Amino acid sequence: MKKFIEKDKRRRKLSFSHEKDRIALLAISSNRSLPSAISWKARLIVSNFSSDSFNSKLNNRCVLTGRTKGTLRYFKMSRICLRELVASGTLPGVIKASW
Questions:
Q1: Distance, CA of 25 to CA of 38 (rounded, Å)
Q2: Buried b (16+ CB within 10 A) or exposed e, 64-97
C-alpha cells in the first residue's frame, strides 16, 4: 500500500507544478484571435507533459491506509478509519449520532 500512497503524492506534486503552465497553454490554444500555428504549438507542448501530471490521474486516498474506495473528501480518510477514530474519541469535534 505504501507504494500507492507515494505514487499518489508524486502525481499530486507533478499536477500542482504543471497547473499554471497547463492553464496558460490551454488558454492560448483556445484563443481564436491567435494564428493557428501558435495554438497548435501550445497544444503540442501540453501533450508532451508527463501523463502523471494530469488531474484525471489523481485518486482520493485515505491518508492513513491508502484505501481509494469509501474515502470521504472532507476528512481525507476512508469510512473505516473514520469510524474507528470517532468510536475511540480521538477525532475532535465529531460524535457518533444516536437517536
A1: 10
A2: eebbeeebeeebebbeebbeebeeeeebeeeeee
d(CA 77, CA 87): 14
Output the nine-digit C-alpha cell for 34: 491567435
Residue where the block lists cell 507504494:
3
Give strand pairing partners of 71.
78
pLDDT tens for 18-35 read 888 888 888 888 888 888
| SS3 per residue for 50-94 | CHHHCHHHCCCCCCCCCCCCCEECCCCEEHHHHHHHHHHCCCCCC
CA–CA dist 9, 21 (Å, integer): 20
The 10s digit of each residue's pLDDT in 40-74 is 888 888 888 877 777 777 778 888 888 888 998 89
